[in-house]
Amino acid sequence: MTEHAPLRLLVAGHHRSETRDEPAKIAANVRAMNEVALDVFRAKHLPVTERRWPFR
After folding, report:
1. What is the chain's pLDDT, residue by residue, as a tens digit (56 residues)?
2. Does the predicted TM-score (pTM) go above 0.85?
3. What percent of the residues of the chain are helix, what percent strand, and what percent coil, each to the nearest 5?
4. In 3D, which of 29, 31, 21, 8 has the Cα closest to residue 54?
5. Phi, psi of 47 (to 5 degrees)
6. Judging by beta carbons within 10 Å of its beta carbon (0-12, 13-18, 19+), is residue 44 exposed, middle or buried?
7. What residues contact 11, with CB distance under 8 A and at least 6 apart?
8. Conformational region of residue 44, where left means phi above 0, alpha means psi within -120 to 50, and beta covers everything else
C-alpha cells in the first residue's frame, strides 16, 4: 500500500444557522463541527476549522 501525505481539510458549518443567536445552540453546532474535525484527525489528516461567532 502506498503512503500518502496527510490532507489539510476544511471543516466548516453554519454556526448560527437556526439558533436565534442562543449560545447553547451555537455551542452545539460548534461541538458537532469539532467532532467531525476529530474524526478527520483520527484518519491522520489535518482538520482546519474556522470560527467567527463571538457571542454578542
Report:
1. 678 899 999 998 877 788 898 999 988 988 999 999 999 999 999 999 876 655 54
2. no
3. 35, 15, 50
4. 21
5. -80, 140
6. exposed
7. 33, 36, 37, 40, 47, 48, 49
8. left
Cell of 10: 476544511
The pLDDT of residue 45 is 97
CA 27 to CA 3: how far, in whole Å?
36
Please, which residues have CB within 8 angstroms of residue 6's CB and are 6 or more apart in sequence? 44, 45, 46
Which alpha helices (DSSP H) does the chain contain, by range?
23-42
Q: Using CA of residue 16, residue 18, residue 22, residue 24, what is the dihedral sign?
A: negative
